[in-house]
Amino acid sequence: MRQVKIFHKIIAANLANILLILVTGFLAYHSLDQVLTKLRFMEIADGLSASFLEMRLAEKNFFLYGEKSALPEIQAKIDETLATVKRERPDIVSAIGEAKTAGLESNLQNYGHTLQQAGTGGAPSQAKVRAAGHKLMGFMTYITASERTEVNRIIAGSERGLFLSFALILFTAVGVTLLLSVRVLGSLKRIEKAAHLISGGEFEKIEPEKSRDECGMAVSALLTMAGELRNREEQMIEARKLASIGILIAGVSHEIGNPLNNISMLAQNFVELYDRMNRDEHIEYVKRIEDETGRIQRIVKDLLDFARPRKPDFHETDINSVITKSMRLVQNMISVCNLDAQLDLEERLPTVYIDEDQIQGVLVNLLTNSIHACSPGDRLRLATRFNPGSARVEVEVEDTGGGISPEILPHIFDPFFTTKGASGTGLGLFVSYGIIKNHKGEMRVKSEAGAGTCFTIEFPVHGTTERSESCLISGS
Ligand SMILES: Nc1ncnc2c1ncn2[C@@H]1O[C@H](COP(=O)(O)OP(=O)(O)O)[C@@H](O)[C@H]1O
Ligand SMILES: [Mg+2]
Question: What fold is seen in the domain 6-180?
Answer without folding.
Answer: Four Helix Bundle (Hemerythrin (Met), subunit A) (1.20.120)
